[in-house]
Amino acid sequence: MGHLELHAHVKIRPGQLEGFKAQAAEIMRITREQDTRTLRYDWFINEDGTECEVHEAYLNEEGLFEHNMHVMTARAVLFREYAFDHQMTAFGEVSQQLRDLSTKHAGGITVYSFLQGLEATAAI
């Protein structure tokens, strides 16, 4: 894979969809202006506006750590006011540092190891 991919899943507090969207826009603004190693940062809201998935990709783990430093304050507002039940999933190798960070901020992380894809042979 060569990069780090993550999915974050959160629930949106009842009656807070518009505030959630505004805070997500603020986090996106910070990401666009400050991140240097973020490849993907796409937000998806389900049809009834109660849950959100964020699909993230970084050049490497350092890119994720850089991103977290940039959005830390804005993300704290998101969870304090608009979201809850943060769950993280990583695809690929994950360091102990990332596991510890995920435990602190998201209650842990589910990790999937790469099996195969169009550009690589299966690991047996």
Describe this structure in words.
Helix content is 41%, strand content 31%. It has 3 helices and 5 strands, in the order E-H-E-E-H-E-H-E. Strands 2-3-1-4-5 form a 5-stranded mixed β-sheet. Helix 1 runs antiparallel to helix 2 (61-82). The longest helix has 22 residues, at 61-82. The radius of gyration is 15 Å and the shape is globular. The mean pLDDT is 93.
Unreliable spans are none
Largest sheet: 5 strands, mixed
The separation of the N and C termini measures 17 Å
The helix tally amounts to: 3
| 3D shape | globular
Radius of gyration: 15 Å
Strand composition percent: 25-35%
How helical, in percent, are the residues? 40-55%
**SSE pattern:** EHEEHEHE
Order of strands in the sheet with the most strands? 2-3-1-4-5
Number of strands: 5
Helix-strand makeup class: alpha+beta
Mean pLDDT: 93
List the helices and strands and how they pair.
Elements: E1 4-12, H1 17-34, E2 38-45, E3 51-58, H2 61-82, E4 83-91, H3 96-106, E5 109-112
Parallel strand pairs: 4-5
Antiparallel strand pairs: 1-3, 1-4, 2-3
Helix pairs in contact: 1-2
Question: Which features would summarize this protein structure in a list?
Answer:
124 residues, 3 helices, 41% helix, 5-stranded mixed β-sheet
Précis, in short:
The chain has 124 residues and is α+β, with helices and mostly antiparallel strands. The protein is built from three helices and five strands, in the order βαββαβαβ. α3 links the parallel β4 and β5.
